[in-house]
Fold:
Amino acid sequence: MGTVLQCATRSLMSLALLATGVVVSTGPAWATPPGDAPPANEVTAGKLHEQAKVAFRDGLVGQAAELWREALGQHRHWKYAYNCANAMFEDGDSLPAWQMLDTASTLGMPPEYQPQLAELRAKIRDTLKATRAYIAIEVEPADATVMRNDVSWEAPRTVWTLDRKSRLVIERGGYRTRVIERDHPPGTLLTEKIVLELAPTSGTLVVSGSPAGAAVSVDGIVVGRLPLSALSLPVGEHLVEVRHGGHTAVGERVIVPAGEEVELRVELTALAGAAPSPNRTAAWSTLGAGLGALALGTGLVVWSELIAQDLDDLNRDPVGLAARTYADYQSYYESEETSYMAARASGYTLGALGLAAIVSGAVLFTLDPDDDAEVDVPREPDPPPSVPSEPDVEPALRATPGGHR
Structure:
């Protein structure tokens, strides 16, 4: 009994819509201006509209829906799309009715008919929710490629689906690819905006190994010495070369991915009977002597400051001064002052010599000729033979499931 009453109520409402002009447009808004004959396609659409009204009143809602669809094909007007959606819903085709209602909305349905549009949309939505989930996805940037369950999904990305789960893959050049999985049992209304992040354009290279101090170059440019850490490089393939005097030079090709760190360990093999590089030996000797002189000079300067502090404390101590004779005080002061001047002058001199020796040692390291030895670089593989490419084929659009109430 409840089903019969529901169908009767829906039919009475539809007939009421026809009578009030929401479905039937015979008022001044659709009248033909005097003296202007409408285009032939509008005339044809008007005739189909009248036939559809008659069919709808006679209970032939499926036939009415087809007539309004033909009228819409002749003239893109919201009233044909809205009436077609209403007839489809009455005929049990809820999913096509929802899609046709979207068409009516995009064709500019007047504000005074928006309540009827919202009411019909709510009824169709409640029917579809019984067996389907509604998904509406917005992506940024808007031209990103979206795959849903391994099928291309074109904009606008809205769908009533029987699927209970969706796996979305969103990608675009220059951005990080995102893979998202969502569960949506029947009745779910899922709306989501997915924003892609810009992909990094560089990665990081870390080079370790032995011997320490070996020269490291990337793409022919010296970038440091072993161990080398946190060197930022553009994404792609790079040639890394490592050289050291008295050792076999090595070259490695590495691929630096975006936003990732690549670690390379290189162990150079010492050449049998290879004499140490003169520059290298002199560099180490000069560097060691410079560090020693700098340390000794620093110690002498610190000692001189301690002597000065002692003399200052003596002059500020009345008791200590009173206990000394003037001759004793003068002899002590002159001796300490001589020590202060000698220590201070020697400290600064040794410090300056030490710094000069350290700089000289560093220069000798950079001038080591053995670091310029040729490197055994791996040969790039030959490109594969060319094969005829497949013709470009547009991926098939995802078919929309048929409507069910």
In short: Residues 326-366 form the longest helix (41 residues). The domain at 202-267 is CATH 2.60.40.1120 (Immunoglobulin-like). The radius of gyration is 44 Å. Residues 1-35, 370-380, 385-405 have pLDDT under 50 and may be disordered.
